[in-house]
């Protein structure tokens, strides 16, 4: 019996354990931290051997195969030892894909991947297809493969998950965009991070498709030097595309094999230029699968966006409160500020991942009337914008930040939480930060 060792007892780890057990592996789950009670119950229900708060090397280094949680870097001594012994260390998507014949749509990119994944799933569901949505979002992909027999999977895939693939290939890959993020995991080399994202296409053949942002210089440069085998379907809001998608101010046009779908941009449920791109990417995938034009038009018109991503919370005294807590990097906040149409009170700050705020300067000058810092150390934000806005206030708790915003904001303004930073200084995670924002707004 082959031994499958799983490092990390979270969603992907436990899901992989269930699938591994079902496929006849001897399974062992090991987590250096504490495994949550609900996951322990699942492991015990399936009679899967586990440990937490330690890695017992004698039980790990005898594996035939190791599935590593995406949160564990490759440089960890235990992972290095495994690789030196020639034991394959793979990701959940690599493991689970071996056990399904479903058509896979894989979505990666620095920003926009969650929205694009949710919208693609929405398009397929509305068309009546049998589809599972997994990966970086929602339930474990491996668990879905163990328990369902879907015809399609829509997977949100991070670069960390792509680092652990060998044979994985989606039939349709979407690369939303690329911007420097997580560089600490890539020796601070941007090209290593770009290479990692492009692994989504490395096993594709000429029968597969790569949908990508043709306006992204880094993507274009990389593709010109490292061609892929798959058929390219670019999308653009800057130039006309023969094959692929492009948009003018009023319309979106998607052409595949001389068949064109047209939609008005006015009918889209999601606002902002970045969401125009997300919509083009998802709709191109839907059209490739053969979903009817009318179904695509209806689906993009009635889609509800992702929670904590430009999520409209409430209007109080004609002031709109928007929760964009999922904006954990500068690029995500760039899109948020770009889509603001009214004077904005911007709540920003948290754990800075070496942020460069300069790209936000034009939007801050044009749209932001006040900045509320929300973090333990706000010095970089103060240095960047202290002289640009009339009012900058430091706060150290969400309630406090919302009370200040309520005092500053006037009729017709927007209060935007778009932190551009990770949340771990004051919150458990970005969801906790977003939920506290919503609760504080509702308490006004």
From TrEMBL:
Protein name: UDP-N-acetylmuramoylalanine--D-glutamate ligase
HAMAP family, sorted: MurD
Organism, scientific name: Cellulophaga tyrosinoxydans
Organism superkingdom: Bacteria
Function per UniProt: Cell wall formation. Catalyzes the addition of glutamate to the nucleotide precursor UDP-N-acetylmuramoyl-L-alanine (UMA).
Binding site for ATP: 109-115
EC class: ligase
Gene for this chain: murD
GO CC terms in record: cytoplasm
Pathway: Cell wall biogenesis; peptidoglycan biosynthesis
GO biological process: cell division; cell wall organization; peptidoglycan biosynthetic process; regulation of cell shape
Cited Gene3D superfamilies: Mur ligase, C-terminal domain (3.90.190.20), Mur-like, catalytic domain (3.40.1190.10), NAD(P)-binding Rossmann-like Domain (3.40.50.720)
Reaction catalyzed: UDP-N-acetyl-alpha-D-muramoyl-L-alanine + D-glutamate + ATP = UDP-N-acetyl-alpha-D-muramoyl-L-alanyl-D-glutamate + ADP + phosphate + H(+)
EC number of the protein: 6.3.2.9
Family to which this protein belongs: Belongs to the MurCDEF family.
Molecular function GO terms recorded: ATP binding; UDP-N-acetylmuramoylalanine-D-glutamate ligase activity
Domain Mur ligase central: from-to ranges: 107-286
Keywords, ordered alphabetically: ATP-binding, Cell cycle, Cell division, Cell shape, Cell wall biogenesis/degradation, Cytoplasm, Ligase, Nucleotide-binding, Peptidoglycan synthesis
Keyword Cell cycle: yes
Domain Mur ligase C-terminal per the UniProt entry, residue ranges: 308-421
Subcellular localization: Cytoplasm
């Amino acid at each position: 019996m082959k031994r499958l060792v799983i490092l990390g007892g979270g969603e992907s780890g436990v899901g992989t354990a269930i699938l591994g057990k079902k496929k006849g592996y001897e399974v062992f789950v090991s987590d250096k931290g504490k495994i949550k009670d609900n996951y322990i119950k699942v492991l015990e229900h399936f009679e899967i051997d586990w440990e937490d708060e330690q890695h017992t090397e004698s039980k790990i280094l005898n594996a035939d195969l190791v599935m590593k949680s995406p949160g564990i870097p490759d440089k960890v001594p235990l992972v290095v030892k495994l690789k030196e012994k020639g034991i394959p260390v793979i990701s959940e998507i690599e493991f689970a894909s071996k056990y399904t014949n479903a058509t896979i749509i894989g979505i990666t990119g620095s920003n926009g991947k969650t929205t694009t994944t949710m919208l693609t799933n929405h398009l397929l569901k509305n068309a009546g297809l049998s589809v599972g949505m997994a990966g970086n979002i929602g339930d474990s992909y491996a668990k879905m493969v163990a328990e369902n027999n879907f015809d399609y999977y829509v997977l949100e895939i991070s670069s960390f998950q792509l680092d652990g693939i060998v044979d994985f290939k989606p039939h349709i890959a979407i690369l939303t965009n690329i911007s420097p993020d997580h560089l600490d995991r890539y020796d601070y080399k941007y090209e290593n991070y770009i290479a990692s994202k492009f692994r989504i296409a490395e096993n594709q053949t000429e029968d597969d498709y790569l949908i990508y942002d043709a306006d992204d210089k880094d993507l274009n440069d990389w593709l010109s030097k490292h061609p892929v085998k798959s058929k390219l379907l670019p999308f653009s809001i800057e130039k006309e595309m023969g094959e692929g998608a492009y948009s003018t101010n009023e319309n979106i046009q998607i052409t595949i094999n001389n068949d064109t779908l047209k939609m008005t941009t006015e009918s889209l449920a999601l606002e902002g230029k970045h969401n125009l791109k997300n919509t083009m990417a998802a709709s191109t995938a839907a059209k490739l699968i053969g979903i009817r034009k009318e179904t695509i038009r209806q689906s993009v018109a009635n889609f509800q966006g992702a929670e904590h991503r430009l999520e409209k919370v409430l209007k109080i005294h004609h002031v709109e409160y928007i929760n964009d807590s999922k904006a954990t990097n500068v690029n995500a906040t760039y899109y948020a500020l770009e889509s603001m149409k009214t004077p904005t009170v911007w709540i920003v700050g948290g754990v800075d991942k070496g942020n460069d705020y300069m790209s936000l300067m034009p939007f801050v000058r044009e749209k932001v009337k006040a900045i509320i810092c929300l973090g333990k150390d706000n010095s970089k934000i103060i240095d960047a914008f202290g002289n640009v806005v009339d009012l900058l206030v430091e706060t150290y708790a969400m309630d406090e930040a919302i009370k200040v915003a309520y005092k500053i904001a006037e009729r017709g303004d927007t209060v935007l939480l778009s932190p551009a930073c990770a949340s771990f200084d004051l919150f458990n995670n970005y969801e906790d930060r977003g939920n506290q924002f919503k609760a504080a707004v509702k308490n006004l």
